[in-house]
TrEMBL record:
The chain crosses the membrane at residues 27-49, 61-86, 92-113, 125-146, 152-172, 216-238, 250-271, 283-300, 306-329, 341-363, 375-395. InterPro entries: MFS, MFS_trans_sf, Proton-linked_MCT. GO terms for molecular function: transmembrane transporter activity. This is MFS transporter. Pfam families: MFS_1. It comes from Siccirubricoccus deserti. Keywords: Membrane, Transmembrane, Transmembrane helix. The keyword Membrane applies. It comes from the Bacteria.
Length: 408
């Protein structure tokens, strides 16, 4: 079997204590690539599409935002074509369903399912590397979408990106994701096959009992609140920045946010101590994004330094909002249940934050005539409020810990 590349800088290569031939790191890089397309098309693409559709069709921002609310690479590619070719609002809603299916199948739960079988002890670092593909998708594809749409038109841009996505993900599925640790005779983390995996903490909640578990409920609620705020803001951030920076520079400022997300996620994934309370880390992350939203509010749509600072602060927490919930699930639940918990948390949060673009679009248009271009005070206030609720909720598991100890 070919050897893995020599370990590189922190966050972008295998950890030095891993065996050189461990296939798990190839899976991480493949998942990294999936995340580039998954988020670059399904997450960071819609804000660019929203602006393009609004400019081309003249439809109200609130209407286009509503369409954003409402299996994998092909669905996403066809969905982007639908965005480009929609001539009526109902066609835009249908296109969003396709791109949404594609994003769901290449999103957080899918990345966790790809990586988790290969890692236990080093899972925070492995997931941080894989999820960094989501941030790279924003850094590369946000400005690329703008440039391609300007040069080739929306349909041409969709053909280029969609075609590349389908071919790449099909190849990875055949060559990388078809392998399993057992089939290759390898153990998690690249350790000796005979070494038993470390004992995992966590509780077991089979069947419907999971829904009555306070740990699960607070994790679902905090994730949904945090992502509702995050996606509500991201969906409108590009079009809010355009009046101040212009379309091309606004794309690069949006890319700055995701560049900061790489830094934040990498630092947390590689530097977080093994026994650290991951819920505290999530609370700190939501708090950082709260600060970012308040700085954006203070910018008033006119102060370029404050706008950039707000984007940076919000961006530093952008990636961890996705990568921390699977790590919290690993810490709070038994290994056999972690995948189910992650899938349910992802599904429930998606069902909630699907309404974020429409809700934030309505807030954005409440004061359209009295505020400077790029200002959205109610939108930024709502972002901060939801992040504050997420901080409170993610720490609400402590009562459950007392109950569990009492019943032990």
């Amino acid at each position: 079997m070919p050897q893995n590349p020599t370990p590189t800088s922190v966050g972008f290569g295998p950890h030095p204590d891993q065996q050189a031939g461990f296939f798990g790191w190839r899976v991480v890089w493949a998942a990294f690539t999936v995340a580039i397309f998954g988020w670059g098309v399904g997450f960071y693409g819609p804000p660019i599409f929203l602006h393009a559709v609004h400019e081309a069709r003249g439809w109200p921002i609130a209407l286009v935002s509503a369409a954003v609310t409402s299996a994998a690479a092909m669905a996403a590619a066809l969905g982007v074509f639908g965005w480009a070719l929609a001539a009526e609002p109902w066609q835009l809603f249908a296109a969003t369903l396709l791109s949404g299916f594609g994003y769901a199948a290449t999103g957080a739960a899918a990345i966790n399912a790809m990586v988790s079988p290969w890692f236990i002890r080093r899972r925070p670092a492995a997931l941080s590397m894989a999820y960094n593909g989501a941030s790279i998708g924003g850094v590369l594809l946000s400005p690329l979408w703008v440039a391609l749409i300007a040069g080739l038109g929306f349909a041409g841009a969709a053909a280029v990106v969609g075609g590349a996505m389908v071919m790449t993900l099909c190849w990875l599925s055949a060559r990388i994701f078809s392998r399993t640790p057992a089939a290759l005779g390898q153990a998690p983390d690249g350790e000796a096959v005979t070494a038993p995996p470390p004992a995992a903490a966590g509780v077991s909640r089979p069947g419907a009992l999971l829904w009555h578990d306070r740990r699960f409920a607070t994790l679902v609620a905090a994730t949904a609140l945090g992502l509702f705020a995050q996606i509500g803001l991201i969906a409108h951030l590009f079009s809010l920045l355009v009046p101040v920076f212009g379309a091309q520079r606004a794309g690069f400022v949006a890319g700055l946010a995701t560049g900061c997300a790489i830094l934040g996620r990498t630092a947390l994934g590689w530097l977080m101590p093994p026994g650290a309370d991951r819920r505290r880390a999530a609370a700190a992350n939501y708090g950082l994004q709260l600060c970012g939203s308040l700085v954006l509010l203070a910018a008033g749509g006119t102060s370029i330094p404050l706008l950039v600072l707000g984007v940076v602060l919000f961006g530093l927490g952008l990636g961890n909002a996705t990568s921390l919930p699977p790590l919290i699930a690993q810490q709070d639940f038994a290994p056999a249940e972690t995948a189910r918990v992650v899938a349910l948390v992802t599904a429930c949060s998606q069902a909630v934050y699907a309404f974020a673009p429409a809700a934030f679009g309505a807030l954005r248009e409440v004061l359209p005539a009295t505020e400077a271009p790029g200002a959205a005070p109610l939108l930024f206030l709502a972002t901060g409020a939801f992040q504050l609720l997420a901080v409170i909720t993610v720490l609400g598991h402590r009562r459950a810990s007392v109950v569990l100890r009492a019943g032990a």
